Amino acid sequence: MSMKLRRLPRAATAGLVAAAALTAAAHSAEAADTLGSAAAGQGRYFGTAVAASHLGEADYTATLDREFSSVTPENEMKWDATEPSRGTFTFTSADRIVDHAQSRGMDVRGHTLVWHSQLPSWVSSLGASGLRTAMKDHINGLMGHYKGEIHSWDVVNEAFQDGGSGARRSSPFQDKLGDGFIEEAFRTARAADPAAKLCYNDYNTDGVNAKSDAVYTMVKDFKSRGVPIDCVGFQSHFNSNSPVPSDYRQNLQRFADLGVDVQITELDIEGSGSAQAADYRKVVEACLAVDRCTGMTVWGVTDKYSWRSGGTPLLFDGNYQEKPAYDAVLSALGGSDGPGDPGDPGDPGDATVTCTATYTRTADWNSGYNGQVTITAGDEPVSAWTVTVTLPAQQSVSSLWNGTPTWSGNVMTVRPSWNGTLAAGASTGFGFTAAKNGSDAAPTLGTCTAS
Fold first, then answer.
1. What are the C-alpha distances in Å from 402 to residues 115, 124, 383, 412, 430?
2. Is 158 considered catalytic here?
3. Residue 275's closest CA among 237, 240, 320, 234?
4. What does the alpha-carbon distance between residue 389 and residue 282 come to, in Å, rounded to a whole number?
């Protein structure tokens, strides 16, 4: 019997999401030594944007699984990816992300339903009547597929112009349907999935300015008339030319005072070292100061895959090493690397908990083989470990012992079953039986991570 997780029908997974989230929350109460667990201790999520194409990379997946409690598909739920031709939906890449998140007890943010960019050409060619129908059909098709599985949806994205006018952005929706298209989208979304949080999302609205004033006026109007809007997303892309505004917290608070949640949805801050770390700390502290700021999402796992990679804007560098910005965020969230105050020189809690993993083929026959992975603690005791094993595409695992696996494509992430605790320098391991299916190649081990 294959150990790969059988994918349940989409509608059948909704209850599993809630159960997995409860499990993750219970774990976070025990140890706040990662971004997700520390944020959970503050009643918030800490998420990241995820690209399906990177889920086969062991270090990418290990970092994602260890640190984050929420994911946002980077491009996989956008219109061109999900409905490239009218009425024909494709969800393969988005499903891969959602399935991975569910296997790890993570929340999922849906991004995005209605946006002027990344539209298939057929959308822009429609007249007003056809466009209105297509917009509603797209919302119903996408939200219907994931009904009960998405925590928050960016229903409409970036509908306002930059600059001082506060006007709506020219787009097929605005130009052909007028101002009312945003309300129509939100009402359609509420009917499609009444349980999901419905958000408006935009950039350059982080401080009080003409653009954020225009969004504020719209949200206030919606709330007064009963238009279903639950949250406002602030993208928060910062650099030296667009720094964290001095009134960032006050701006978040004024939206929260309208009766909506606020979420930091696409955070990245160009820079490095202590200056970048200080800016990240400002953002986290602002969110924590606003009761209705429910969570934060950084726009990517590692600098090397960032859309602003030249500005090194994320918490992990291209080698998945934690940057000073990571330490600042973890500290601001109240997280700790061990007993005592985080970062105190000489504090025994600052000792790095490490492990190494080695692979050996212990038995071999024409159609399959047995593999053994040995995990060895470093200079400090280990209370938990995680190892990823990437199998050649043709191969499949039929059984595994002394470990607990989860799957994403051909990447198997293994955690302890009974054998998570190791003394310094001690070893344990897990074994598995694999079917070759025509490939005799060896699997690849990712980095062993420990806590």
1. 47, 55, 15, 14, 5
2. yes
3. 240
4. 38
* Beta-bridge mates of residue 200: 156, 232
3-state secondary structure of 359: strand
Cα 187 to Cα 375: distance, rounded to the nearest angstrom: 53
Query: Sign of dihedral through CA atoms 39, 61, 367, 418?
Result: negative
Amino acid at 410: N
Q: Residue 32: what pLDDT?
A: 63
Q: Which two tokens stand for residue 106?
A: 């993570």
Model pTM? Answer: 0.72
Q: Tell me: pLDDT of 12 over 50.
A: no
Residue bearing tokens 């598995």? 432
Q: Please report the DSSP string for 237-277 in residue order.
A: EEBTTBPPPTTHHHHHHHHHTTT-EEEEEEEEE---HHHHH
Q: How far apart are CA 153 and CA 199, in angstroms?
A: 6
Do residues 146 and 188 touch, judged by C-beta distance below 8 A?
A: no
Determine contact, residues 64/48, Cβ cutoff 8 Å: yes
Asked whether residue 346 carries a pLDDT value surpassing 70, the answer given is: no
The whole-number average pLDDT for the span 162-169 is 88
Q: Give one DSSP letter per residue of 94-159, joined into a string.
A: HHHHHHHHHHTT-EEEEEEEEESSS--HHHHT--HHHHHHHHHHHHHHHHHHTTTT-SEEEEEE--
Instruction: Let me know: does 63 contact 302? Beta carbons within 8 Å.
Output: yes
In the predicted model, what is the mean pLDDT of residues 243-254? Answer: 97
Query: Is the torsion defined by CA of 376, 378, 380, 385 positive or negative?
Result: negative
Tell me the three state secondary structure of residue 309: helix
- Residue at token pair 């007993």: 339
- Long-range contacts: 392-395, Cβ < 8 Å, 24+? 392/439, 392/441, 392/443, 393/439, 394/436, 394/437, 394/438, 394/439, 395/434, 395/435, 395/436, 395/437, 395/439, 395/441, 395/443
- pLDDT > 70 in the chain, percent: 90
Count the Cβ atoms, other than its own, within 10 Å of residue 38.
Answer: 25
pLDDT tens per residue, range 271-304: 999 999 999 999 999 999 999 999 999 999 999 9
SS3 call for 37: helix
Cα 327 to the center of its chain, rounded Å: 19
Q: Which of 158, 184, 270, 380 is catalytic?
A: 158
- 8 A C-beta contact, residue 24 and residue 324: no
Catalytic annotation present for 266? yes
Q: Which of 57, 74, 184, 266 is catalytic?
A: 266
| Structure token digits, residue 375 | 């995990």
